[in-house]
Design brief:
With 293 residues, the chain is α/β, with parallel strands linked by helices. The protein has seven helices and 14 strands. A five-stranded mixed barrel has the order 7-12-10-8-13. Helix 2 (80-95) packs parallel to helix 6 (240-250). The chain is globular, with a radius of gyration of 19 Å. The protein starts with 29 loop residues before the first strand and ends with a helix. The relative contact order is 0.18.
């Protein structure tokens, strides 16, 4: 296999990967992702030990130990474009020899767990509750740039949703399944559903301030009536489908957990967002500590 060119895999002079400024030994195979750099310390304050602290731009990383588990928490910033950078570079730290610029013969499977915030599309999923994503539906275009092949469940979901979407022919999406193993081991006590991933916060999520949205609140309200197997389309955020699509193509496991800060049908927003995020962090860390990961 030919070496990967320096223009394609950029390594800093200190041996760290380009954007994340991390070296292979500074990252653990259990990786928690958060959007906000400020949430990294909210997670790592519960570690028994912190051994690495690095930051570059919006990418802040802490690696440490929780009980017997070595864990990394990293901020991705907002949106699928940042997910593309973070997940490719984290995979490269484990599965590419950065000096030889060759893919390793033995690959390491990583476990990604997103701790994020989201808006509910269902009136009966209240603010401050927890929700895990069984599937992501990407309204962005990231995965279309890859040679992505859907699995059987994703193909069935696509067929049923296309039939349901007869009321609009312009909405484009891609399906991406999360890890059933992580869903069962980390999110067994949470509500579960299908998560829409948008490439922006305003019009891409049906919000209109001074500019009208092409797909308004009514479209997302209609989507809330769709269900596949036992899952409804439950919530809307900005990273899940990209995380799931890249992880599955790279051979990793991924789970997106969310605290619901907004209930769109009821027009409500959490009055205690910081406290609710902290509760989700503690819940997920407890599950990780007691898991087989």
């Amino acid at each position: 296999m030919p070496n990967i060119l320096s223009s394609e895999l950029v390594v800093n002079p200190d041996g760290s990967i380009y954007h994340l400024k991390l070296r292979p030994e500074e990252v653990a195979p259990i990786i928690i992702t958060v959007g906000d750099p400020g949430r990294v310390a909210m997670v790592s304050k519960y570690f028994d030990e912190i051994e690495v602290k690095k930051d570059k731009r919006e990418f802040h990383t802490h690696t440490g130990r929780l009980g017997s588990k070595r864990i990394t928490v990293i901020s991705t910033g907002i949106g699928p474009d940042n997910i593309d950078i973070v997940f490719n570079e984290l995979d490269a730290l484990f599965n590419i020899d950065l000096e030889a610029r060759t893919i390793k013969e033995e690959l390491t499977q990583l476990n990604f767990i997103r701790i994020g915030t989201s808006g509910s599309l269902q009136a009966d999923i209240p603010v401050d509750s927890f929700l895990a994503s069984a599937y992501g539906l990407g309204l962005d275009n990231l995965i279309h740039y890859y040679q992505y092949q859907v699995n059987l469940g994703e193909a069935e979901l696509t067929d049923e949703l296309n039939e349901f979407l007869s009321f609009t022919s312009d909405l484009r999406f891609y399906p991406a399944e999360g890890s059933p193993y992580l869903l069962n081991s980390i999110a067994d006590e949470m509500a579960q559903g299908i998560t829409l991933t948008a490439p922006g916060f305003y019009a891409p999520q049906g919000r209109s301030l001074r500019l009208p949205a092409r797909f308004d609140r009514n479209v997302f309200e209609q989507l809330g009536h769709f269900s596949f197997q036992k899952y409804r389309i439950t919530n809307l955020e900005m990273e899940t489908s990209a995380i799931y699509g890249l992880s599955r193509m790279l051979g990793h496991r991924a789970l997106s957990t969310n605290v619901i800060l907004a209930n769109r049908p009821n027009g409500q927003f959490s009055t205690t967002p910081h406290e609710s995020v902290d509760r989700l962090i503690r819940h997920v860390l407890e599950k990780i500590e007691n898991s087989d990961l």
